[in-house]
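Q: Focus on the shape:
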Amino acid sequence: MKALFAGSFDPFTVGHKDIIDRALPLFDEIVVGVGYNISKQYTCSAEETAETIVNIYAHEPKVTVNVYSGLTVDFAKELSTDCILRAIRSVKDFEYERDLAEVNRRLSGIETVFMFSSPELSHVSSSMVRELASYGKDISRFLP
């Protein structure tokens, strides 16, 4: 099975590497999609984010990285993936993602697989990590 993990542009998002690492035994291939919206400002470019992910998984042939724009479901169909892999960090995340998964399934026929972040990462938001970094705090334990 081939899964699309559509991540965000934010290199400080916590738990994404943990999700991918735990999903590797479940799938034949995981495509990490670095999505972007041209109307938003980001910490770094999509290409820089993609390059970082490629470097992290340089020795893992089951992980590929692609930059895309537009709807995740359209990109998933373009790649012929079997499912979309989504990270859940909280109950609020799950409620939103569950509704989004239903819309995606109706639009594309592609199912969504949910994976919860590790408990030690679930309470840490990307905005908290950015705030800690802005105060010069060590954030290495929150990053891949």
In short: The chain has six helices and five strands. Strands lie at 2-7, 29-36, 63-69, 83-88, 111-116. The longest strand covers residues 29-36.
